Amino acid sequence: xxxxxxxxxxxxxxxxxxxxxxxxxxxxxxxxxxxxxxxxxxxxxxxxxxxxxxxxxxxxxxxxxxxxxxxxxxxxxxxxxxxxxxxxxxxxxxxxxxxxxxxxxxxxxxxxxxxxxxxxxxxxxxxxxxxxxxxxxxxx
Amino acid sequence: xxxxxxxxxxxxxxxxxxxxxxxxxxxxxxxxxxxxxxxxxxxxxxxxxxxxxxxxxxxxxxxxxxxxxxxxxxxxxxxxxxxxxxxxxxxxxxxxxxxxxxxxxxxxxxxxxxxxxxxxxxx
Lengths: 140, 123
Fold this sequence. Notes:
The structure holds two protein chains of two kinds.
Chain A: E1 3-11, H1 21-33, H2 37-57, E2 61-68, E3 71-78, H3 86-89, H4 99-103, H5 111-118, E4 121-127, E5 130-138
Antiparallel strand pairs in A: 1-2, 2-3, 3-5, 4-5
Chain B: H1 3-9, E1 13-16, E2 27-30, H2 34-37, E3 47-51, H3 56-64, E4 69-72, H4 80-88, E5 92-95, H5 100-109, E6 113-114
Parallel strand pairs in B: 2-3, 2-6, 3-4, 4-5
Antiparallel strand pairs in B: 1-5
């Protein structure tokens, strides 16, 4: 299926000042293109949780955002250190985030489950070199 | 209920979005944990987020879900950065001296129900 548009956003580790900026930009782009609010909200949640995960847990990473005729794919990739136990990390409420992250309102152990719940297809792989998430939202 | 009425019954101070006073609010979500808010993808227009979290992430979270207004509890005073972000997003930002339990109780007693996703739906 033909790729219509593609965006790439770099995200720095510990960049709490700009946390959410990428997702805000993605959301504004989607609004301009004219997707439904429901689709936009799902993508915004995926992107925002992914962005926060990169900022909180990784050495930095990026989000690739690809729009096709029939779907949208978000690739959320970071540079490590990886997730020790992916199954555990997918459990609602499980978190390794330190207390200062909880003070920001995150680290409740809902990030990956939220991404999964908002995706039609969800894939995650993780090694010490990085975590790769691919989330697909179908448009039909 | 209009935002104007919520402001009055909770004796709230408005920081941004006075031009939205006449917007109708139909649902509330209350939490200090932003990932809990993000579990609820069923926000429609006309919703308000009640939170004790006083930082820009509360506005970002509301922005992601098209929430119209953020109500801070326990008299929290938002930072300049938080106010600026709310303004940029044309969002109402207000603060009440009530604690979260009482603020929500008052809104509930006036007929505004909580928002939830299908999985966590409570009758």
